[in-house]
Amino acid sequence: MPKSKYTKRADGRYMTTITLNGKRKYVYGNTSEEVDEKIVDLKHQKNNGIEINDENLTFKQWAERWIKLYKTDVSLSTLDMYKDNLRLYVYPQIGDILLKYIKEHHVMKLLNDMSEHGRAKEITLLTIKQILEKAVDNNYVVKNVVKNIKLNKHIAKEKNPLNDENINSIKNLSETDPRAFLLLFMIYTRTPKRRNCFIKI
Length: 201
Description:
mainly alpha, 3 domains, 3-stranded antiparallel beta sheet, two-stranded antiparallel ribbon, about 10% strand
């Protein structure tokens, strides 16, 4: 077997150092090929003007870098989903925490506070898992602290069909509210295959 160009540590991983922006950075990998890939990735970050600062990197800073590096080939709607979810739910709670200090309990509190948000809660956990997994790959954190978190399957609330009382209430309201008239129009112009009109009540 040819000798690796990188130093093999006692734990079996390979290690080397590179200099970026005048600073020495250690790069680790389970194989020489993995070290090569991480070096290419770091140089790609530098060439794209992304500041590399491991010591004071916050979760938000890494999440924004993650989007620029790893979500360049997703659709605009998917990209907006990631950005909106992070902006609305994640950054307010854990965005300013240093990436290296993120713990499972930080994320669990965030998820518990989202108990009424169903699908958004699932997207939040999925997004954080991806972000931290790439942080592990880039040696910013030792492990993905949310890897084993699982959510109970979200069950949508059952929708009940409109009854006569509901329809009569809409009829009365339609005399003064054009929005109710629109609902009434939809009820009486439904196709034969859609006899039941559903609404959350």
